[in-house]
Write a structure and sequence with these properties.
alpha+beta, RNA-binding, Cyclophilin, Cyclophilin-like_dom_sf, 456 residues, Alpha-Beta Plaits, 9 helices, Cyclophilin-type_PPIase_dom, RNA binding, Peptidyl-prolyl cis-trans isomerase
Length: 456
């Protein structure tokens, strides 16, 4: 006995275990026959575990009654039961059937309010998305298995869901087709001639329609903005790794203004006097060249409060100072903050002052290794100081020489060390060789002279 579920994720074919769970199979087949599951949402998706459906309206709706069994005589169009006392039934639990394979289909059950030892089922059913789901054994009544449509199960398994497990884009049971039905219809059951349209209650539960096409953002300006944000994020992470930033998400101070297009003759005192009318100025610095001392025509002004900084920003934009119309913006620089963090971190007393690197206003948000992950007193195997390594090697060599000398005992020879003896022998050999070559040269000259006289 088989049933075909046409869902928005794909078709799913289910074979029923009629001999093991006759009541569960009859309930499921008759509900599919009257189109009770049409437009029912898929909810409670747990990746690699299971998903649940069968409530025709959805458990999040206030109009939902949780679903009714076929013996409650529900209407396929309105989804309302005419016999509320028969909405639930007691399903069959078989010990030989386990949730061992992916695609196992079982009725969702709840504990009876009258008898805690009994579990009752209605219309909701569960399909497993993984193997060996032992947690459902004894709690969900198995009545079938998926034989076709595992690609649809994979789409449901990989769907984006919210905190309650409901997919962000609706996944619905669109149609149900009974391929083989061995049961007789219960009295009062009417089968609709055609598939009913979704009810108003069902349409009210739509979040993102299953047939709605989600177009990607193709705006060139938006894509360029996204690219710049990703590039800035990557650069910030690089600066964090090399130690130029305390953390990648560091934000610039909110009470610092950036002023540019200044006249080269504008001094710090003049700029501070002009901007001090908006509030207390903590610092005003015109940035200059380190070698020449010439103004680079921009400055940073730090106010005592954020409100004073905002007031100066709105009032000083485009103002004429020393025949130059300046440009004012909020500072995006964190160089001063990074310099303060580095100097405090490198100081010996930074640890005792609290905060991150000794700065109370700066907190450490990210850390690639925990405080206790590594013993800082130890050394890495591949990073060492050459001088210290050489000294350690020398120490080990001296220890080895002393130990060998102790084993040999005191030396009785007064001869010079081996290296000095070799050096003397080499010099002596060089001297003998030079005398030998000089003697042969003189001998050759004498023989050549005698030969010359004899020829004459």
């Amino acid at each position: 006995m088989s049933v075909l579920l046409e869902t928005s994720a794909g078709d799913i074919t289910i074979d029923l275990f009629v001999k093991d769970a006759p009541m569960c199979c009859e309930n499921f087949l008759e509900l599919c026959k009257i189109k009770y599951y049409n437009y029912a949402p898929v909810y409670n998706v747990q990746q690699n575990f299971s998903f649940q459906t069968g409530d025709p309206i959805g458990p999040e709706s206030k109009d939902s009654d949780g679903g009714s069994s076929v013996w409650g005589s529900p209407d396929g169009a309105t989804k309302r039961a005419s016999r509320p006392e028969k909405m639930a039934f007691e399903p069959e639990f078989t010990k030989k059937r386990k949730h061992a394979d992916r695609g196992t289909v079982s009725m969702a059950t709840t504990v009876s309010k009258v008898n805690p030892d009994k579990r009752l089922a209605g219309s909701q059913f569960i399909i497993t998305l993984g193997d060996n789901i032992e947690q459902l054994d004894g709690k969900a009544a198995i009545f079938g298995e998926v034989v076709e449509g595992f690609d649809a199960l994979e789409k449901i398994n990989s769907a984006f869901v919210d905190q309650s497990g409901r997919p962000l884009q609706d996944i619905r049971v669109l149609h149900t087709v009974v391929l083989d039905d061995p049961y007789e219809d219960p009295p009062g059951l009417t089968q609709p001639p055609t598939s009913p349209l979704p009810s108003a209650e069902q349409r009210a539960t739509v979040r993102i329609a299953h047939d709605e096409v989600l177009e990607e953002q193709n705006d060139a300006e938006q894509m360029e903005k996204l690219r710049r944000e990703r590039e800035a994020r990557a650069q910030a992470l690089t600066l964090e790794l090399i130690g130029d930033l305390p953390f990648a998400d560091v934000t610039p101070p909110e009470q610092v203004l950036f002023v540019c297009k200044l006249n080269p003759v504008t001094r710090d005192e003049d700029l501070e006097l002009i901007f001090s009318r908006f509030g207390k100025v903590l610092s005003c610095e015109v940035i200059r060249d380190k070698k020449t001392g010439d103004s680079l025509q921009y400055a940073f002004i730090e106010f005592g409060s954020k409100e004073d900084c905002e007031r100066a920003y709105f009032k000083m934009q485009g103002v004429l100072i020393d025949d130059h119309r300046i440009h004012v913006d909020f500072s995006q620089s964190v160089s001063r903050l990074s310099k303060e963090w580095r100097s405090s971190t490198n100081s010996k007393t930074a640890r005792s002052r609290g905060g991150f690197g000794g700065i109370d206003s700066l907190e450490k948000r990210k850390q690639y290794r925990g405080e206790g992950d590594r013993d800082r007193s130890g050394r890495y195997d591949y990073v060492f100081d050459k001088k210290e390594r050489r000294r350690e090697g020398g120490d080990r060599g001296d220890d080895r020489a002393r130990s060998q000398e102790r084993r040999r005992g005191p030396s009785r020879s007064r001869s010079p060390p081996r290296r000095e003896r070799k050096e003397r022998e080499r010099h002596a050999y060089d001297g003998k060789g030079e005398r030998y070559r000089e003697r042969h040269r003189s001998r050759d000259r004498g023989s050549r002279e005698r030969e010359y006289r004899s020829r004459r």
